[in-house]
Amino acid sequence: MCPLAVYYFSFSQFDANESFDRSGDIFVMDKYGWLYFKDRVGDTFRWKGENVSTQEVEAVVSSVLGLADATVYGVLVPNADGRAGMAAVPAVPEQAVDGMLEKLRDGLREKLPAYARPIFVRFVNQIELTGEWKETCKK
């Protein structure tokens, strides 16, 4: 199977009856021409059949914990459907971790559907920004 990236709606590029869509989705085509969803590029990831907006989850995590910065991204989990959410938040003193995680758990349960809640929390020394002021985490 070969990966196929879908870019944008475009009509009559190749002939009068063809079109394609830029959705940020990556599909795989089998030998019979059937397309299967493989992954998503951009500011979303797919978990258990649902699209998760990293910006929405980042806003909730930041709000619940009173942080200026947090970042969320999808990570591969073996034998799972899609990517699980991981929230990277600034490190806190060790004695405060339990209270922070409890506050985060309760806030996420209240404000996000189950599929959008991060499964993992990663403590980082600082949230790094790209040249376009987007957050990134070194892996």
Brief summary of the model shown:
The chain is of the alpha+beta class and 139 residues long. It has a 3-stranded antiparallel beta sheet, with no helix packed on it. It has a 3-stranded mixed beta sheet with strand order 8-9-10. It has a two-stranded antiparallel ribbon with strand order 2-3.
Walk me through what this model shows.
This protein is α+β, with helices and mostly antiparallel strands and 139 residues long. The chain folds into 2 domains: 39 residues, no CATH class; 92 residues, ANL, C-terminal domain (GMP Synthetase, Chain A, domain 3). It is built from 2 helices and 12 strands; from the N terminus they run E-E-E-E-E-E-E-H-E-E-H-E-E-E. The strands form 5 sheets. A 3-stranded antiparallel β-sheet has the order 1-4-5, with no helix packed on it. Strands 8-9-10 form a 3-stranded mixed β-sheet. The protein has a two-stranded antiparallel sheet with strand order 2-3. Helix 1 crosses helix 2. The radius of gyration is 18 Å and the shape is elongated.
Q: Tell me the Rg in angstroms.
A: 18 Å
| Strand fraction | 35-45%
Which structural class do the helices and strands define?
A: alpha+beta
The helicity comes to: 10-25%
Number of strands: 12
Which descriptor suits the 3D outline? elongated
The main sheet orders its strands as: 1-4-5
* CA(first)-CA(last) distance: 28 Å
CATH architecture of the largest domain: 2-Layer Sandwich
Main sheet, how many strands, which sense, barrel? 3 strands, antiparallel
Low-confidence stretches: 1-11
Total DSSP helices: 2
Mean pLDDT: 78
Provide the domain count: 2
User: In the CATH hierarchy, what is the class of the largest domain?
Assistant: Alpha Beta
Say which CATH homologous superfamily of the largest domain is assigned: ANL, C-terminal domain
- The helix/strand order is EEEEEEEHEEHEEE
